[in-house]
Amino acid sequence: MTDACTITRPPTSPGALNQTTGMYATTGATSAYAGPCSVMPVSQAELERGEAQVELDAYTVDLPPATIVERDMLVTITASADPALVGRVLQIRTVTTATRTLYRRAVCEVIP
After folding, report:
1. Which of 16, 23, 27, 105 lies at a 20 to 30 A Cα distance from 58?
2. CATH H superfamily, domain 3-11+29-110
């Protein structure tokens, strides 16, 4: 794996209500993983559903097999041989699971 990323779990609640301002305090995302990964674009053939072709800016992110990630977590690419990927934020849509695997694959969508 030649790239690196951080994966965070978005906050599940808006935080505590500030009685003075009437605004909810923002809570930070929880870190779930930081380390090596491999990022590849998803081919259009993989995105076809029935007779319709779906146009998505999607990537697969391969992670070490023991990495536990879930749908809707955010992946930030922190290092890559392709400088255009660095800083890109992706949202996990599906994650593969298997008894025997060389990597954990997350299919992700680009956050605009």
Report:
1. 27
2. Bacteriophage SPP1 head-tail adaptor protein (2.40.10.270)
